């Protein structure tokens, strides 16, 4: 699989780009002039609608989509091999994520490992495929979408938080290994985003928003604009950074007067 050679010469791969935050990231990167390829799993209709929307607004856009289940290790490896055999990519955004909520004492290892595969190991394999050509070109940007859960503990969220913490450790290590060769690697840590993933918490939304200093959930575009910046010339000296995009959630004490 290769990105289009036309338009911009800085193609970017986005995982989980069919809907929600991923779709917002795809929109912003296309607006910035990048050829974008995104993966999706079950969001077939949403991915098709997104492509139609973007092509209507940007007829010159170089955009393609690729069906991929990141929980399938063999499928991830197949994509990685195709990336290794193709052209050099400028950017990679690992946005796709899986969640699993349960208390530590009740955690099912198979379910926890499935979350780790999507959130961390898929990133590890795809970034390994992409980073060597980036270092040879002495230019590249890698952005991982993590979570504030990797920074602050939350009951019942251990499996997900552990996967995002592993992702953070990988990002920081990769950042210092590649910095001298022109590649930046950064970690965006959103708080609560107004997407389908949080619909199951609808009954608690008002209480959750009351704990956020900004008083609301993030929109997908709040986060997507930060991601797009990390792929821009202005972020060329930022690497190994953790950027909370959480309305002040991690800056505040959990107990208030």
Automatic annotation (TrEMBL):
Segments forming domain Ketoreductase: 10-195
InterPro entries, A to Z: KR_dom, NAD(P)-bd_dom_sf, SDR, SDR_fam
Record SUPFAM superfamilies? NAD(P)-binding Rossmann-fold domains (SSF51735)
**Under what name is this protein listed?**
NAD(P)-dependent dehydrogenase (Short-subunit alcohol dehydrogenase family)
Q: Which superkingdom does the taxonomy of this entry point to?
A: Bacteria
Family affiliation: Belongs to the short-chain dehydrogenases/reductases (SDR) family.
Q: Which organism is it from?
A: Xanthobacter agilis
Under SMART domains, the record lists:
PKS_KR
